[in-house]
């Protein structure tokens, strides 16, 4: 069963959904969506991370980033990955205070721009107990045609990609995803601020190495074979994983048989179970290392 969550951070609202939590030793999982989707990205029927967390005893929170869904925008309507990370750092701290008693800590899951923001959060070394980050749908180099396309978009308001473009860029070929799932995922589509699109192909590639070097928790990193937004090959996966030089360990893989929106593909169950297994390992190994 999914329930709504509402937090007040600096007088601004952060909205979310919660499911699961029957296993006391399980960490809190907080999922950060990418650009162009609200928190419902993680709750598409048949491919719901929240449902899979509930089935395995993990408390999973999917939150609307500032300006998306039910969450208030950042002050002045500005948007930046660093600004989102600051607001979400405070929001997750409030979640931890309310729901973390008796649990080992928090593991962040991120998709796409949400992954970049998860790295920003981890680099801040928050006061609440961050145990690890599991990220996918993000890289360090976009194809030239994507960079050019984003820079030629009209300045001003947010952008909503046409359905045909979303299908081509965000999903793998037929056989990797079901048409009815792509259709169902449209319920979580939301316009993305142009500033986010420009930062992910501009500022982010320039600062990812610096940010990742400041991350001191375990990292799970996945890049999909058919991701239309990033340059995809084994060398890029290895290079990205190598940025996390201070992490206790990094689990990195190139995922065959899927596209950018890994959570909606036919293998989403395998992806989610690997993420939850990673979260469980973080919860087990980090306290031992501290001891």
From TrEMBL:
GO molecular function, one term: hydrolase activity
Keywords carried by this UniProt record: Hydrolase
Domain Serine aminopeptidase S33 stretches: 28-127
Classification via SUPFAM superfamilies: alpha/beta-Hydrolases
Protein name (record): Alpha/beta fold hydrolase
Protein species of origin: Amycolatopsis mongoliensis
A Pfam family that the UniProt record links to this protein: Hydrolase_4
Gene3D superfamilies per the UniProt record, alphabetical: alpha/beta hydrolase
């Amino acid at each position: 069963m999914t329930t709504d969550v509402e937090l007040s951070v600096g007088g601004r609202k952060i909205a979310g959904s919660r499911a699961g939590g029957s296993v006391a030793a399980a960490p809190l999982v907080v999922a950060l969506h990418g650009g162009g989707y609200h928190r419902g990205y993680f709750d598409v029927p048949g491919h719901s991370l929240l449902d899979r967390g509930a089935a395995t005893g993990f408390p999973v929170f999917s939150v609307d980033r500032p300006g998306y869904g039910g969450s208030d925008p950042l002050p002045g309507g500005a948007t930046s990955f660093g600004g989102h990370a600051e607001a979400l750092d405070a929001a997750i701290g409030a979640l931890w205070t309310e729901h973390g008693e008796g649990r080992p800590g928090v593991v962040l899951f991120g998709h796409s721009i949400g992954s970049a923001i998860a790295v920003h959060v981890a680099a801040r070394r928050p006061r609440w107990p961050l145990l690890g980050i599991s990220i996918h749908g993000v890289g360090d180099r976009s194809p030239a045609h994507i960079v050019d396309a984003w820079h030629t978009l009209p300045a001003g308001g947010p952008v909503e990609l046409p359905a045909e473009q979303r299908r081509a860029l965000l999903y793998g070929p037929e056989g990797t995803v079901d048409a009815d799932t792509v259709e169902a995922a449209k319920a979580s589509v939301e316009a993305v601020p142009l500033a986010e699109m420009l930062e992910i192909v501009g500022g982010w590639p320039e600062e990812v190495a610096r940010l990742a070097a400041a991350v001191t928790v375990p990292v799970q990193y996945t890049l999909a074979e058919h991701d239309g937004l990033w340059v995809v090959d084994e060398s890029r996966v290895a290079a990205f994983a190598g940025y996390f030089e201070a992490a206790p360990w990094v689990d990195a893989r190139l995922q065959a048989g899927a596209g950018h929106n890994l959570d909606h593909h036919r293998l989403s169950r395998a992806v989610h179970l690997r993420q939850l297994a990673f979260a469980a390992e973080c919860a087990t190994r980090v306290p031992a290392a501290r001891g």
